[in-house]
Amino acid sequence: MEDENTQLNNILEDCRNGNRSGQKQLYELFYSYAMSVCLHNSKNREEAVEILNDGFYKVFKNLDQYRKGTPFKPWFRAILVNASIDYFRKFKKYTDVAADSFVEEPQENYSGLDNLAYEELIILINRLSPAYRMVFNLYVIEGFSHPEIAEKLGISAGTSKSNLAKARRNLQAFIAAEQTVKQS
């Protein structure tokens, strides 16, 4: 473990010095992790790659703000999440939730979540409108509160709560529909 920390510290030091080789090593070392974070907050792989590259750019640009001796991954994740939020604000109209088709409520006693694989759930989350998906991911996956989400996205806390509730209802309906298809 200490050897890994030493290696990471050496790579980070190379990056601070503008060493391209160090930047490439950091990119390769954290690419998979970064891609998994970015895929949660994007509609497709193309968007995720764009967010990932912007995130790495911000890491290289702001590496002097990283405090040595603290865990790197949480700091890096925060930058990736903020890059996702920046991407969302730049390319998506938050008020454009009308494009998302509202789906019927699933039956109250339905519990299809147990039968879903992780990958299937991610696909269903990606079917949400950009506004619902962003709030859902920030609240459920990243652990932000509604006031924090509101501040980051420039919306009210009530809108954040409403979008989360609608995202959950849509996900429940998506899951119910998937279960119906599988049972057919």
Structural class: mainly alpha
How many domains comprise the coordinates?
2
Instruction: Report the span from N to C terminus.
Output: 50 Å
Number of helices: 8
> What is the gyration radius calculated from CA atoms?
19 Å
Low-pLDDT parts are 94-115
The proportion of residues in beta strands is under 5%
Mean pLDDT: 84
Helix content: over 70%
Number of strands: 0
Major sheet attributes:
none
Shape: globular
CATH topology of the largest domain, by name, is Rna Polymerase Sigma Factor, Chain: A
Write the CATH homologous superfamily of the largest domain: RNA polymerase sigma factor, region 2, helix turn helix motif
Written overview of the protein:
This protein is mostly helical and 184 residues long. The protein has two domains: 2-91, RNA polymerase sigma factor, region 2, helix turn helix motif (Rna Polymerase Sigma Factor, Chain: A, Orthogonal Bundle); 113-183, Arc Repressor Mutant, subunit A. Helix content is 71%, strand content 0%. It is built from eight helices and no strands. It has helices spanning 2-16, 20-40, 45-62, 72-91, 118-126, 130-141, 146-153, 157-183.
